[in-house]
């Protein structure tokens, strides 16, 4: 009987990879669990929206501007369309924008930062470009891009990607310069390892933590960029819904139906909250390591 605890401990699965173990630890904290659960529920609802509402998001009825009820938990809009249905379909669009724009910004920004660290001339030029981008608030930069491209999904993705470049570019460049002076990098250079191999196999894996944490933080910023641009009418265009465009339409009827904006606001808040909790837990796990 005395061997039972040790036997159970030996049977318990252990994660050998320290990086993976560190991230798993982040998702075992209270904030990490709460953020993950909220995000998983929202993603599941967004993915199942066509199954739950096979009629789509543009089904109209005579019940216009009704308040919340059992039949319509978020109420209805000016055309009698169910706001819960439109909020879930809008959530789908917001998630696809974030899922494409933020990873794209991470890859492009990190690449630019590494190029800037390898070449002094390229680094100077890229830093000036990033300084120009960072001088524009995300909403203003998005407005400029959308005025050139026209409103829509693609313009929002480009706007968010471009606005993220300074964050990831500066982080990767700083990480590259700090890691380049470490003993393991100098040893690899002494052995004749190529610069590309040193970056991809040695420096980048050891500098990935702040980039991933910044990515989780920037997701929240990206959500509000989309919402802000759609609220002023430069994002997703009707009848296709997004959380921001629903808020844009709801503000026009705020006196007639005060609860119009309640549903999309709650979904937007929960989406931002989930990523805020996840990014906070990741940041603490990385800094504790």
Descriptive account of the structure:
The chain has 289 residues and is mainly α. The chain has a single domain, classed as MetI-like (MetI-like fold), CATH 1.10.3720. It has eleven helices and no strands. The protein has helices spanning 4-11, 18-26, 30-52, 83-118, 120-134, 138-149, 153-179, 183-190, 195-231, 243-252, 262-288. The chain starts with a helix and ends with a helix.
Task: Produce the secondary structure layout.
Elements: H1 4-11, H2 18-26, H3 30-52, H4 83-118, H5 120-134, H6 138-149, H7 153-179, H8 183-190, H9 195-231, H10 243-252, H11 262-288
Helix pairs in contact: 2-11, 3-4, 3-11, 4-5, 4-7, 4-9, 4-10, 4-11, 5-7, 6-7, 6-9, 7-9, 8-9, 9-10, 9-11, 10-11
Keywords:
73% helix, 11 helices, MetI-like fold
Give the class-level CATH name: Mainly Alpha
Strand count, sense and barrel status of the largest sheet are: none
- Rounded mean pLDDT is 85
Low-confidence stretches: 1-13
CATH superfamily: MetI-like
Query: What is the straight-line distance between the termini?
Result: 36 Å
What is the strand tally? Answer: 0
Shape: elongated
CATH architecture: Orthogonal Bundle
Measured by DSSP, the beta-strand proportion falls in under 5%
Helical segment count? 11
Tell me the helix content: over 70%
Sequence of secondary-structure elements: HHHHHHHHHHH
Integer count of domains: 1
CATH topology, anyone?
Answer: MetI-like fold
What is the rounded Rg? 23 Å
Output the structural class. Answer: mainly alpha
Protein name: ABC transporter permease
Main location: membrane
Pfam family, one: BPD_transp_1
Subcellular location: Cell membrane
């Amino acid at each position: 009987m005395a061997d039972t605890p040790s036997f159970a401990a030996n049977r318990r699965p252990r994660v050998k990879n320290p990086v993976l173990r560190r991230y798993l630890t982040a998702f075992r904290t209270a904030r990490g669990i709460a953020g993950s659960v909220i995000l998983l529920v929202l993603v599941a609802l967004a993915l199942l929206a066509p199954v739950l509402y096979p009629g789509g998001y543009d089904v109209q009825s005579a019940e216009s501007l009704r308040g919340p009820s059992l039949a319509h938990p978020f109420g209805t809009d000016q055309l009698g369309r169910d706001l819960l249905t439109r909020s879930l379909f809008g959530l789908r669009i917001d998630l696809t924008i974030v899922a494409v724009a933020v990873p794209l910004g991470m890859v492009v920004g990190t690449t630019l930062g590494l190029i800037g660290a390898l070449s002094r001339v390229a680094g100077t030029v890229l830093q000036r470009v990033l300084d120009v981008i960072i001088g524009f608030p995300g909403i203003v930069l998005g407005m400029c891009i959308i005025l050139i491209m026209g409103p829509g999904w693609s313009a929002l993705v480009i706007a968010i990607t471009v606005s993220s470049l300074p964050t990831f570019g500066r982080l990767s460049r700083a990480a590259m310069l700090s890691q380049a002076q470490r003993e393991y990098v100098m040893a690899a250079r002494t052995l004749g390892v190529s610069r590309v191999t040193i970056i991809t196999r040695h420096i980048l894996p050891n500098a990935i933590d702040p980039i991933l944490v910044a990515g989780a933080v920037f997701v929240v910023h990206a959500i509000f960029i989309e919402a802000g641009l759609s609220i002023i009418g430069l994002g997703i265009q009707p009848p296709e819904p997004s959380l921001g465009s629903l808020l844009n339409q709801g503000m026009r009827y705020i006196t007639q139906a005060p609860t119009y904006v309640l549903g999309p606001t709650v979904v937007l808040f929960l989406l931002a909250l989930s990523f805020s909790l996840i990014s906070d837990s990741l940041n603490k796990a990385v800094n504790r390591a």
